[in-house]
């Protein structure tokens, strides 16, 4: 089962996409704008991105996504208005993997998403010995037991675990997990790290004094 992140500001289109894709075996995560979409990227396998968003142009969002190491190879299909051929060309040049013009057929969208998923070699599970992250189901297992995490705890852990050994400062983590529009403080990150350590044990996420945090697991 694949997770699709639908980024679309028109509620009726979003609803149609949800029903159409769920009816064809996908799981759907909805976002109304770029700010909502950014923190959900870690959970999805493919993105359907409306090119005209209220808070950030699709082109800017896609650029930001491609520059972020964890999402550099995340498949993205853009939705553009029929009249604007220039948008499709720009989208493909800026890193979109495919496009559809509105109005489109849900059957065709589903077929294209399946093709994108077949071509993408992204990992669905991260295994670090006793710790397993199921990126598709957004679930974490420790010694075979499922650990109940909040959405943000999972996102933070998944982001760190996608880059084992790499140090991220709190600002970078806020940006990656909560999104640039989020008015959180570095303390928010500290709190979530503390919660993760309480649930998973203290050995997985290391504090690097004066620099930030890093994930300690070794992929197995
Ligand atoms: Ca729109």
Tell me the total number of β-strands: 11
Give me the secondary-structure category.
Answer: alpha/beta
The ligands found in this model are: calcium ion
Output the strand order for the largest sheet.
2-1-3-4-5
Low-pLDDT stretches are: none
Index terms:
220 residues; alpha/beta; four-stranded antiparallel β-sheet; 8 helices; 11 strands; 38% helix; binds calcium ion
Summarize it:
Helix content is 38%, strand content 22%. It is an alpha/beta fold and 220 residues long.
Can you describe this structure?
This protein is α/β, with parallel strands linked by helices and 220 residues long. The chain contains 8 helices and 11 strands. The protein has helices at residues 11-22, 34-37, 58-67, 85-93, 106-119, 151-161, 170-178, 186-200; strands at 3-7, 27-31, 46-50, 76-81, 98-102, 125-128, 131-134, 139-142, 145-147, 205-208, 212-215. A 5-stranded parallel beta sheet has the order 2-1-3-4-5, with helices on both faces. A 4-stranded antiparallel beta sheet has the order 6-7-8-9, covered by helices on one side. Helix 6 (151-161) packs across helix 7, helix 6 (151-161) packs across helix 8 (186-200) and helix 7 packs across helix 8. The longest helix has 15 residues, at 186-200. It starts with a strand and ends in a 5-residue tail after the last strand. The model has no long low-confidence stretch (mean pLDDT 89). Bound molecules: calcium ion. Residues 9-10, 50, 52-53 line the site of calcium ion.
